[in-house]
Amino acid sequence: MSIQRSVFLSATLLLSITALLAQTATSLTTQPAPLPSIPPVTADHAMVVTIHHDATDAGVEILREGGNAVDAAVAVGFALAVVYPAAGNIGGGGFMLIRPASKALAHGQPHFLDYREKAPAAASVNMYLDVQGNVVPKLSTVGSKSTGVPGTVAGLTYAEAHYGRLTLAKVMAPAIRLARDGYVLSPDEAAALHAPILTQFPSSRRIFQRDGDFYKSGDTFKQPELAATLAGIAAHPSSFYKGKLAAQIAAFEAANDGLITAQDLAAYQVKERTPLLGHYHGLDVLTSPPPSSGGIALIEILNILSGFDLPKLGSDRSPAQIHIITEAFRRAYMDHADYLGDPDFNTIPLTQMASPAYAAAWSQSILPVAPSPSATLVRPAGFLPPPPRPDVLPHESNQTTHFSIVDADGNAVASTYTLNFGFGSGITVGPLGFLLNDEMDDFASKQGVPNGFGLIQGPANAIAPGKRPLSSMTPTIVSEPPTCPAPSHQTPSSQPESSPSPQTPSSRPKRSAVERPLYSEAASATNPTIPKTCTPGQLRLVLGSPGGSTIITTVANDLISVVDNHLNIQAAADAPRFHHQYLPDILQFEKAFPVPTIDALKATGYITQRESEFDEKSPGTWGDNELIEVSPVIPPGEKHGQLSGGQDKRHHFGKAAGY
Ligand code: DON
Question: Distance between CA atoms of 659 and 655, rounded to whole angstroms?
Fold first, then answer.
């Protein structure tokens, strides 16, 4: 090659690189058009946000009758089992995060109730494979073999007994009424009951499809069997697991080729687990521990993002913000893939995963304008133990619901529960009128086979009797840190024990170590205990969503939209979504996402995918936000700031309401 030609090529290459850098830099500085915004619903004292207006009304009714946030949550949980049969349930399972505002509830300590389904004793690692070792299609998602031992009734009744203020009969009354007297179906709800999975099973076809004479919009849908079952639970809560109802469920399972026995039901127990505590821009982020994969991933994401000034990069959903957030998602999901499973069956390096030093090391590997391909991503050395061999892949899927509640004292509940796919296994326990889950599909069915959401994880999530499948559900509560008394070497007046003076988000200092209370120097992600001498900080956000593997990124984006970008809670709920989960290495966008933003990211090297029709027809895939924000400004005489509800407009029958 001649010198002139080589100089020419070098100059051309230099010009091309400069042009590319200029283009990518320009791409990332593109600002999206402002989001259209509907104002949130507000209330001064208490609020309930759910996907169904009747369930929201049930919660508000209980709050008005003197119930606390837990009473209302139990009322909502049972009501959704009636009015939202696709995901609301008594035949499934879930998580409930409870954050007291004061020592008047649960000694002021947060609680996390794990009422996730468990694999029956007859379950085995290869139960969904044929003799050739291939996955039998739908065996883990439809019908009798797909069901885990339900946990919802245990979870809700436990919550009521331990943390509620009213009686179980009182809080279940709205659900029983809705089942007995019926509720009016909207067009969307009537259409949903046409689901083919319900047609396959005689009891489901009879109850939800009137044996082919389908319900129409405006019809009143009554469920007398379910009403009787709920009344039975209200009168004898343990009967679902050890009494008459348990015997009926076990008999139904035996007659229908199911695996769940009376012994499985009798052995089911709610687990009180220690919630995780992260910190983000001076706020406490209380979230879900394993078997949720969501909380630890959320903390890792936020820890990585703590090293960036997102608003300085651009506005909410700007390419520059999306790039940095995506790279945080990618890194956290790599750890998610390698380490997570049922903590009763695995040792999970939670403390290391939540360590700020680890996140700082990760954040240094983020390139300013280009993606880091997942295939070549290398975890920072020296922080985590070697992961188990990643050869078992779980399945996660498609119908779940979340609800958020704050009572007049400022106590908060965030709960996400599920049947897994829409209408679960499709099987209704005929005489009892409730659908059974297909949560067994959240376990790995076979090594090396990608799941419905393309998630890749390790053997920690293999099927075993009595084990809980890994979940993405991430109920999360954000608050100001607790206020603790001054240490003895300071004068009492220098560190008041009462609540800090109200601060607006913009006046609140960011990333300030001094803002954190002394207790948090010792508080780790695995120890959210508030010392007896401290007062819980003011509540700020109650968050959660369905959406399978997108749950975690949805919750993270909600939090970032409010905390970093100061969107109101309704705008955060409705903002178009983006998602990255390490593998597949694709930056996914909801259909509503502006194309210029996607193009800007594509120009920097991302493989992008914008959903086509699918997400509009099945918005559950992209989740459904039911959120509450609490103003940091506390009016005189009030216990907390004004409440704002963010009810996801992707669904048309939800409601935020309060008083
Ligand atoms: O527990 C889980 O992660 C899944 N069973 C949740 C599935 C889900 O959120 C689908 N929602 N639309």
Answer: 13
297 CA to middle of ligand 1, Å?
Answer: 16
Is pLDDT at 276 greater than 60 in this prediction?
A: yes
420 pocket-lining for ligand 1 (C-beta < 6 Å): yes
| Ligand 1, atom 5: closest residue by C-alpha | 420
Residues acting as catalytic residues: 400
Q: 35 pLDDT band (50/70/90 cuts)?
A: low
Spatial distance between the Cα atoms of 435 and 85, rounded to a whole number of angstroms = 8
User: Which of 342, 551, 615, 618 is the pocket-test mutation for ligand 1 (most atoms within 8 Å of CB)?
Assistant: 551
State yes or no: pLDDT of 443 exceeds 80: yes
Nearest residue to 287 (alpha-carbon basis) of 133, 476, 148: 476
Residue 505 scores a pLDDT above 70:
no
Structure confidence by residue, pLDDT tens digits, 45-76:
999 999 999 999 999 999 999 999 999 999 99
**Quick check: 619 pLDDT over 70?**
no
d(CA 355, CA 563): 21
153-210 confidence digits (pLDDT tens): 999 999 999 999 999 999 999 999 999 999 999 999 999 999 999 999 999 999 999 9
Count of other CB atoms within 10 angstroms of residue 278? 27
pLDDT for 523? 54
Residues 378-393 pLDDT 10s? 999 999 998 875 433 3
**Residue 539, beta-bridge partner list:** 479
Q: Residue 587 Cα, ligand 1 centroid: separation in angstroms?
A: 20
Q: Is residue 396 in contact with ligand 1, taking CB distance under 6 Å?
A: yes
Phi, psi of 220, rounded to the nearest 5 degrees: -95, 120
Residue 527: closest CA among 282, 271, 286, 270: 286
Distance 336 CA to ligand 1 centre (A): 16
Average pLDDT (474-481) is 97
Neighbours of 449 (CB within 10 A): 12
Mutate to test the pocket of ligand 1, among 396, 625, 648 (most ligand atoms within 8 A of CB): 396
d(CA 587, CA 169): 48
When pLDDT is averaged across residues 246-262 and rounded to a whole number, the result is 98
Q: Which pLDDT score is estimated for 454? A: 55
Note the pLDDT of residue 492: 37
Please give the number of the atom of ligand 1 that sits closest to the Cα of 294.
Answer: 3
Would you say 329 and 381 are in contact if contact means Cβ atoms under 8 Å apart? no
Using CB atoms within 10 A of its CB, is residue 379 exposed (0-12), middle (13-18) or buried (19+)?
middle
Q: What pTM was computed for the model?
A: 0.90
Mutate to test the pocket of ligand 1, among 298, 340, 418, 615 (most ligand atoms within 8 A of CB): 418
Please identify which residue in the block is written with the tokens 């200092």. 509
* Closest listed residue to residue 445, CA positions, set 493, 396, 379, 507: 396
Distance 91 CA to ligand 1 centre (A): 15
CB of 632 within 6 A of ligand 1: the answer is no
Ligand 1 atom closest to residue 397's alpha carbon, by position in its atom list: 7
Question: 547: Cβ below 6 Å to ligand 1?
Answer: yes
Give the angle subtended at the CA of 176 by the CAs of 173 and 178, to the nearest 5°.
110
Whether the CB-CB separation of 408 and 63 falls below 8 Å is answered with yes
Could you list the beta-strand ranges (E) of 546-636.
578-579, 587-589, 608-610, 626-630
**Nearest-5° Cα angle at 582, 576 to 586:** 55
